[in-house]
Amino acid sequence: MLQLDEKILNQIIKPRPLESHKGNFGKILTVGGNQQYGGAIILSTAAAIHAGAGLVSCATSPQNLTALHSIVPEAMFIDFNNKKAVSQAAEKTNVIVVGPGLGIDIPAVNILENILRNSRKNQFLIIDGSAISLLADNQKLFKFLKEKQVIFTPHQMEWQRISGIKIADQAEDTNKKQQQKLHATVVLKKYHTVIYHLDGTSSLLPIGGPYMSTGGMGDTLTGIIAAFLGQFHLKDYEQVIDAAVYCHSAIAAELSSSHYIVLPTDIIGRLQEFMAQYTNS
Amino acid sequence: MLQLDEKILNQIIKPRPLESHKGNFGKILTVGGNQQYGGAIILSTAAAIHAGAGLVSCATSPQNLTALHSIVPEAMFIDFNNKKAVSQAAEKTNVIVVGPGLGIDIPAVNILENILRNSRKNQFLIIDGSAISLLADNQKLFKFLKEKQVIFTPHQMEWQRISGIKIADQAEDTNKKQQQKLHATVVLKKYHTVIYHLDGTSSLLPIGGPYMSTGGMGDTLTGIIAAFLGQFHLKDYEQVIDAAVYCHSAIAAELSSSHYIVLPTDIIGRLQEFMAQYTNS
Amino acid sequence: MLQLDEKILNQIIKPRPLESHKGNFGKILTVGGNQQYGGAIILSTAAAIHAGAGLVSCATSPQNLTALHSIVPEAMFIDFNNKKAVSQAAEKTNVIVVGPGLGIDIPAVNILENILRNSRKNQFLIIDGSAISLLADNQKLFKFLKEKQVIFTPHQMEWQRISGIKIADQAEDTNKKQQQKLHATVVLKKYHTVIYHLDGTSSLLPIGGPYMSTGGMGDTLTGIIAAFLGQFHLKDYEQVIDAAVYCHSAIAAELSSSHYIVLPTDIIGRLQEFMAQYTNS
Amino acid sequence: MLQLDEKILNQIIKPRPLESHKGNFGKILTVGGNQQYGGAIILSTAAAIHAGAGLVSCATSPQNLTALHSIVPEAMFIDFNNKKAVSQAAEKTNVIVVGPGLGIDIPAVNILENILRNSRKNQFLIIDGSAISLLADNQKLFKFLKEKQVIFTPHQMEWQRISGIKIADQAEDTNKKQQQKLHATVVLKKYHTVIYHLDGTSSLLPIGGPYMSTGGMGDTLTGIIAAFLGQFHLKDYEQVIDAAVYCHSAIAAELSSSHYIVLPTDIIGRLQEFMAQYTNS
Lengths: 281, 281, 281, 281
Fold this sequence. Notes:
The structure is a homotetramer.
Chain A: E1 2-3, H1 7-12, E2 27-31, H2 38-50, E3 55-60, H3 65-71, E4 76-79, H4 83-91, E5 95-98, H5 106-118, E6 124-128, H6 130-137, E7 149-153, H7 156-163, H8 172-182, E8 185-188, E9 194-196, E10 202-204, H9 217-231, H10 237-256, H11 264-276
Parallel strand pairs in A: 1-10, 2-3, 2-5, 3-4, 5-6, 6-7, 7-8
Antiparallel strand pairs in A: 8-9, 9-10
GO biological process, one term (chains A, B, C, D): metabolite repair
Enzyme class (chains A, B, C, D): lyase
Catalytic activity (chains A, B, C, D): (6S)-NADHX + ADP = AMP + phosphate + NADH + H(+); (6S)-NADPHX + ADP = AMP + phosphate + NADPH + H(+)
């Protein structure tokens, strides 16, 4: 297992080409945020914007519109109950994040199915939180993942649901076996997160710590991964995912020297300055 | 009476165990905030999150949803008129704060009763503000407090209401006598707050001052107590309460050297860095 | 005419008495903010809170509730269409600000009349913006100002409306004559603001400048005056008004050395630290 | 083609005249922001306020009211569906920005027509984003631009729509030819933006970079141009436009030394201090 270190940031975070426009840095669509968990999709969206995504639309409950704009007026809004608007947005995007705060009720399943059904071949699909649980319970939805570039970002209980492996049995070998069957990258979030790659290799995240054990932390990660995939165009895109995961925890580690706990909002607020350190490589 | 000093922070605020997850640091439920007093529950919730609680849900009026997320997108939301959702949340939580901005009308009584009825034996119940007044007026609700770990956080008028002791007569002995009958910890907020413990001892807070005489200060304290109880697991949990009360005023005292008055928002914004100072003990 | 200088701040801004509570520092009610001008009453309310008022309630349009709490969760809210709630709040308060963003339509007149009718003898009434224009057009409302401590804060056009003196003719003598007829303190806002006192004296503000020519600046002043009157209890309360007016412009002047223009939000954010400088006098 | 440099800021950003009032620094009306793109008009409005406009009203969807005030309580609000209120506001203003986030549906066309129809001879009309596309598709609206001071701020695709010149063919000569037919200043936003003036000259912006390729950047520019036109009264007002465009990118360039990408919100937050540097010229 490759142990990630700071070099991954030097490899991935590059100065931007001078002649470029927003489209070069990714059109991101984030989908989630019901009445109860609206903050999750707001954090994901804000993280994507602060991590450098070119254009970010957030498909969420209309109840979250105003809080979204109060936190990131840079975001665009789509009512996630508007099936047509969501499917059109899904088609026109490079990277989709689906799941943060989506919930597990019937409307949530319908939204997830609509997104998956309308996503395109060459898209990145970051599937997080309740969307993972929904997939585990609706196996027929897996057919829509074919020929997409799928990234799952489960915590251990969500991994249990989708892999069938109980938390106590989640060892590297068993995890890898199930991940390979999913034909997806798996970012298994835990103390020392592991990223399982499509080619059977995996990366270990040796940084991060309990100062990150706070609500919304995983939602924030999805936004960073989305922004990195949207703007850093490597053939081996799983290196880009590795870098995003490392970046998220490296910022938290840095802040933890002065903060007892690190909040998602803190990480989001530090992204732009943190990333600037790596452009002189 | 024990006079609290900074040592209590060194004793209680400890480095977090490396292998841990959000659940280890408390599931908090804050309940309150009607149309008039929505800010109160937002401040309580924000304080809990910044003080390190693992997961925080806020049951409040739907009118407060957007302001809640604008201030702390890390919070989760529950409509406090949704009896079933509130009772389910009450069951699944470690610490409940009830009262900030709840009001004293009929719906408020019903919400309070619902919360108390559905709280569990080993839970912490922090009862603040209007919830104290409501209890004083609805003695039948006291039966739900049995075998819970109850903390009252009255100011002197609220203490008068629930103890029957007029403010002029609130001396240590009479206070203690009534507090013992309540089988609850009492944080009596005043110039030099006193914390009355279950075992008959009490702690005096020698810090704090008139720069704290501003709306929302007590609401903020409830959130800090909740977060501390959620994450610092001592058998003698009243030491944890002492530490939370000390922390709240110590931050205010520190800020008062540069601020004519200290606002709740200032204290909330300083919690993470302040607490970081005590992990090297 | 007395020329104000920094000494007025040393005279008025005093260390708070140690044994005190929120009630000692003023219960403020701010009234205004229709759909079009909601920001005005939010700025007034936020200024009152940051300038040290004990408790601040804002009676405004329900459309402004969420933005109010997003900016100052410390504030309490009253629907200004709720006649009973507003009149009850008016009775229980020490200082009323009425006018910022109130508008001049029929509902606005009714709200103003309700406030004036329910204000009490010993209250401070700060009448600003559209409330001044409404009074000018509804002379029958003047009877409610009797035996109150009234402060008008007009700009020159509003002063023309209520005094009948055209802007070109607004000289010290003519102004004073009309101000004396009003039995009110008049803060005439202009380049070098003048405060006309009840005893016929007046104070000149020699500071402030064109960096303050931006929307919301006067609304912010009303909140500072309210907070000062609520917490600094001098028999000669017009000195307190002088200090509040000086404080507002002194902060702006200080910030103007680094800011091309100074926004109301900047002044509000600087109040607590600015005022702290004057407690060692 | 004139290559702009920092001198343009020294020429345009002047100390304000001492005796002045808000009206001297411009009454701005910003129009845009449907449900999907509300952030765009909020950013434009916030930029106008922070860049020194005297008074700024924002005509937008009621859904954006609260987020607008949460970000800039200094702004005034108009429901953009209220035809009468919008047309009255258009008449009373010095500078109109129309387009950011307006959308291209039927209501958007009607709002645009209402604005253009009610604008006055000596007004500045900044036409941006979807309003440019709408004009391209509704040629009959051009008649309302006669004898106005019109500024178009297209990106290359919008310029293609309104000029008929395909992006690949957008060379200086062809651009200028079409711009002259429009009788309008054209700020053509691209890597090295060009400003085409009414007299046939043009200015090249040699600064700015890919750190600006993020959603909302152009919306922010419209607010800065509006504020500059509102407060800096030069006969040759196109120099003022040049300065606004330079200012926007100069702030971004400055921030890019420490920020991997620069967000609109960052530029808005830096405007006041940045502009203060140029008043000693």
